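Retro notes - structure team

What went well: the batch runner handled both jobs without manual restarts.
What didn't: labels got mixed up in the shared folder, which is why I'm recording both outputs here explicitly, each with its sequence directly above its tokens.

Job 1
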Amino acid sequence: MTKNMKTLIAIAAFVIFMIAAGIIYNSFSERYQAKSPLPAPTAEASQTPDSDDMDNSSPEPGEEKRLEAPDFSAVDGDGNEVRLQDFRGTPVVLNFWASWCSQCRKELPALDRLFREYSEDGLVVLVVDLVDGARETMDSGKKYVEENGFAFKVLYDTRQEAAYTYGVRFIPSTLFIDKDGYILAGYEGPLGEEGLRIGIDLLLDPE
């Protein structure tokens, strides 16, 4: 992939994440006015090594806009290729992380608890380790997952395809994708268990 092509993909992905971030704010604030607002994403989120220091403000999305989650492929712990579209038909919580990220390490146990709680409802929690081969390796990611006994599905972005596709700038970053493959909400930064529950409720009870 050429440098210009990567740049174009990154710009498109940034737009996707900004739209998604606006959707989550509007959806959460409209449906859960009694709850505290979600935290600002840049205060505690860890900037990925290759990301630029860009403004994190969100444009206002169109009320009727539905954003289809772009497909990507990554590998599981056994080296098998897995695609996001393999999970079409089930609601997905898509989380980007790395084992060096302190906020990710705080959030993953909450994701694991929620996956175990809602797995009978068909919820898929898909966490994508952003492997860059330097600061984060597949071995370091697998070791952390195994040490903690997480039950959710873990993929390793060894080719950085997922990172480029979604324009990941900060981790953790989380998107909530409905069973039809559309992004209902997305957020850059740690959501905490309460915020994750709100997003899961959007997936399992969209009305």
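Job 2
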Amino acid sequence: MDQLQYWFGNYVNNLHVPTAHVTDIIEILIIAFLVYQIMVWIRNTRAWALLKGVVVILVFIFIAYIFEMQTILWIVKSIVSIAVTGIIVVLQPELRKALEELGKKKFFSDIFRDSEEGGLFSDKTIKEIAKASFEMGKVRTGALIVVKQNDNLAEFERTGIEVDAIVSNQLLINIFEHNTPLHDGAVIIDGDRVSSATCYLPLSDNMMLSKELGTRHRAGVGMSEETDAMVIIVSEETGKISVAYKGNLERGLSVEELEERLTSIQDKPDDDRKRKHRKGKDQKNGKKADS
């Protein structure tokens, strides 16, 4: 027991504990946050399957190292640089999307986007879009309406025909009317104006989407995955209204719910939003009192 205490005392006396400064703690937290974000990103992309394959290869290399399989170790050393380049090429779409998501963070958007006191679009535009959507839903007219936020949609606008007209429910209904030149494709709304029609949108490859959804819904979800735009889909089969935003799809929305979704991306000052919310509550309370 005395020897054990003597050994432990010498070990403690000789133990070097580095001093940690505030900057060291901040650095550790930043690295931990970055590692966590990278792991979350890998988990939600095709890189997850690739990572599992890499882990299997690393285990195989470790076994080769233990048993001193020199030929295998030489092959690994020779192709490691090529393998890194190959992984970058394979993950190019995911890496591009990750960098785009980084640029979409609100911190950067607030720096590089001009401030608009009145919001991205007016309350009248919200009413016109909602009214047109439900008028088309009543008569089973399919529609695909893209409401632009901060991302540049020029590459999608180029696939369609320039319109450059003020948003109105009559205009949207006429565009999507059957057998008209502009009914096929999507409409892109920029601010209070319809910028383009008959635009082609990217289809989502999300395997979790219901098989009963058609190309129109998959195009709406695909657009919301690649950009920060909100996409309104009117089903030609059921007449129901759906909204795709940030890769998520909400189906069967009411007029009020659609207006709420559009208001949430309007980016108006908080005072205006609170005032509008109070006005809506007062109107609802007034209707209840009348009834």
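One thing worth noting from job 2: Residues 22-43 form the longest helix (22 residues).
We'll revisit the folder naming next retro.
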